[in-house]
Amino acid sequence: MCLGVPARIIAIADAGRRLAIVDILGERREVDLSCIAEPGEALSDQVGRWVLVHLGFALSRVEEADARVTLDLLRQIDEAEAGKGHLKASLLA
């Protein structure tokens, strides 16, 4: 099963390559913004926005409220099934 995970863009790592740093459950990862970047739009405008990340790509923008609900549900599933900490390791592998 494929799973997109909500993440908040915290910085632009390389504007030329359309790479950003995102925060996913307290972990920082580099992701590609090519799928969401509009032509002519400054990538710096993306900082602070929430995106859905899958396999290192930001696939779509999401609203912060929706992202937080999804992350909360993922945490609840993790606690019910595997115990704390397992979710982060599996999502960020």
UniProtKB/TrEMBL annotation:
<dbReference type="InterPro" id="IPR001109">
    <property type="entry name" value="Hydrogenase_HupF/HypC"/>
</dbReference>
<dbReference type="InterPro" id="IPR019812">
    <property type="entry name" value="Hydgase_assmbl_chp_CS"/>
</dbReference>
<dbReference type="Pfam" id="PF01455">
    <property type="entry name" value="HupF_HypC"/>
</dbReference>
<protein>
    <submittedName>
        <fullName>HypC/HybG/HupF family hydrogenase formation chaperone</fullName>
    </submittedName>
</protein>
<comment type="similarity">
    <text>Belongs to the HupF/HypC family.</text>
</comment>
